[in-house]
Amino acid sequence: MSETSFLLLTREGCGLCDEFMQELVSEFPQLASRIAIADVDSRLGWQGRYGLVIPVLMDDEGTSICETRFDPEALRCYLRARLV
Questions:
Q1: Which of 11, 9, 1 is closest to 65 using CA atoms?
Q2: Are 8 and 37 in contact (CB under 8 A)?
Q3: Which structural domain, as residue segments, surrounds residue 44?
Q4: Is residue 1 part of a domain?
Q5: Cα distance between residue 78 and residue 20, in whole Å
Q6: How far apart are the first and last CA of the chain?
Q7: What is the CATH number of the domain that holds 78?
Q8: Do residues 41 and 74 touch, judged by C-beta distance below 8 A?
């Protein structure tokens, strides 16, 4: 089984997005190399669905793990479930 990649949807100039990323990397440094960052406005689907709730952390299948505020417990639960 390959390691899951993550996508963080952000928007340029979003302080909440910067804070989310800092908390994520601080809490889970082992995931830092597996996180890609994309502008939520770069795709209409993302913009329509997530434009008002960024930042959004999702897995490589598009499953939202946490939105707006970094939720370390939600990510822990997600990672535990993937190990089972």
A1: 9
A2: yes
A3: 6-83
A4: no
A5: 17
A6: 12
A7: 3.40.30.10
A8: no
User: What's the predicted TM-score (pTM) here?
Assistant: 0.91
Each residue's pLDDT tens digit, 37-51: 999 999 999 999 999
Q: What is the DSSP letter of 72?
A: H
Please report the DSSP string for 29-72 in residue order.
Answer: GGGGGGEEEEEGGGSHHHHHHHTTT--EEEETT--EEEESS--H
Instruction: Please give the C-alpha separations between residue 3 and each of 28, 58, 63, in angstroms, as whole numbers.
Output: 14, 14, 15
53 within some domain: yes
Asked if the structure places residue 57 within a domain, the reply is: yes
How far apart CA 64 and CA 84 sit, in angstroms, is: 19
Domain membership of residue 10 (yes or no) is yes
